[in-house]
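hiii, so i know i said id send this last week but things got crazy w the move. better late than never?? heres the sequnce for the chain we talked about at the cafe, plus the structure i predicted for it. fair warning i was half asleep when i ran it
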Amino acid sequence: MAALLVLLAALCLISGVQSQPDSDVCTLHGPTVGPPLPVLPEKYMLKVEANIQGWNHTIEVIEFYDGVSNRGAVNNIWKGAVSQTVVSYTTEEIFHVGSDGSCRVEKVTASSFNIYGFQIVNGTAHIGNINDIFRFGAQYNETYMGQTTIRGIPANHWQSCLYQEEQGSTSLLDYYFTVANYSGAYGDREVPLRLELNGRAPNREFIHGKVVPSNGTHNYSHVYEFFDVQYHPEFPDRSFEPHLGVVCPGRKSPKPFPVIPDHFSVNYEMVSTERHNVFYARQAYNYKSKMSATYYTLLISGTPTKFHSLDDFNTGLTYQINLNNGSCNITPIGLAGGDASLAPDNVHVQIKDVANLLYLGIDDWQYQGLTKLREIDTESWIAKKLNYSSGNRPISNITVEFFFSTATWNTEGGLQNTSNMPVMAKYQWSEKKNGTEEMVNHNYIINFFHFEANNISTSHFDLSPCFSDDNSEELAFDIANKGAYSQYILNNTIEFYHGAQYSIAKAAAVTPTRVASLFAAKGSDGVTTVFFQLLGIPWVKGNAVNTTSQTPLDEAYMNLEDAVNSGQLRLDFKHKGEDVYVSPQSNSLRTEFTFDEPDDEASSFSVGTFIGFGFGMFILGGLLCAGIVFVIRKKMVEPSVPYNVQS
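okay and structure toks below
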């Protein structure tokens, strides 16, 4: 920040009003005959090389001015350090970003200096007038001094005399612009080439943070060379925003953080910058059902092994299904899992809500504006949290950035158009190295793909591979309405399966996760049959808080049979946004069944394929949490086996 303050102090010398200048420095004299004054643009971008006599170093400045959109920013390079000043006139804030990533916020109206100034337009703050910023224009009584050559470029020379009443300083300004018929590199004409500023001012010094007068005066001489001047620029991305990754404490956020639904599926790739590897996974999450499912691949004894891991917070159990050989390992859910948190009793676990799962329960999000990622227009938010606990791992200084596609972008690759999709998240945090006081920094980038918020397949949470024939029952019943399949189910399978699963579970007095492998098909006789498995009670005791009471399998079957035969079972579901239902045919619940495939229904399947069909249809998803590495490690069959990574 020191570089910025020094430069601004120097530039302050040319800010002020005409009054009574020191005649030994310069005197006012009116305009002389010459060409019209150059017209300064309403927007520009340029570079300035500032050389201050006696400093023995050069300062370089990149200026961005947009009077049309009411915004301004400056980048400063001083002694190898790059700092940034951004003026937000909509929120009336100035952001001073240091080369170390620190950020200080000032009010526009309270700032001791603002290179672009401000004016009140219709009751709101607005960037200063371009002529006042340059201190150049008819109101400054420039005198035409003739033509000369600057850096080999033909130039017109104007001179004016300014007096800064507050500081008692007098400045002689010599401005040089390209002549009217000379075109710059970007095609602009009459652009500034140089400003020479010479003058005298009373001595001042800093005492206890304040500038106070001291004895005597001093002379000063500044030369500002202007390069890369563009009057109609295409501003680079984020020219008028603090750099990405910078947290400005106390900054106003003009746009709230997007609302993420409590059920979704998404693919992701996690990039570890420190380990130089990429890890791929996919996940589905359903807070209402208290379920989270993750798909990932581990390299075990040199063989890529695919896993489907399900956390069921109804029972407090993790089901790890080896998709290579079909085996299933059931264990209590551990706190190391990124989807689990310690319950209020400090003994059991509970599922994290989406706020804690994805963005760690942070509320103070700062809007970072627009940027482009993977050629997608995105908006981003950033937040910082000093302390956070991931399982039993206390971490500190965690910074999280989330990038979402703008409302003008949507996906057509899913089952339903989705906009404001998560595109990327960045996590940075520190923690103590194992057994030491040494702090280790971690950096992860997560890229998201195929985000689905409204169509989460029940097959994600299918536990049937973990239950033997002795602890499950394959069942089927018929729908009374023969036209039900074409009318309600054919193009609405996910909504139907969701509703059917909850309706069947409620009638059987079991949790929805015990209704698995749902599949509906129309037979050759036109009757729609619903096939599913009713699962038993797991043989491992879970550790969920408020564990749902589990009805034995035979009792659950009798409950369901009574509901079907009495007409009390209704399969409630959504169809085109409306609540609808179909009812099973009385006395149609059975454990033995056959299935005749109709000739004219391409979407129907033969017997032997429908049980478990849903499990094979899962939509890819991904895990979103800072502790993801530790989640996967805890679920590994062989904890010492490394990830399957792409280096």
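btw Confidence is low (pLDDT under 50) at residues 1-19, 599-647. thought thatd interest u
miss u guys!!
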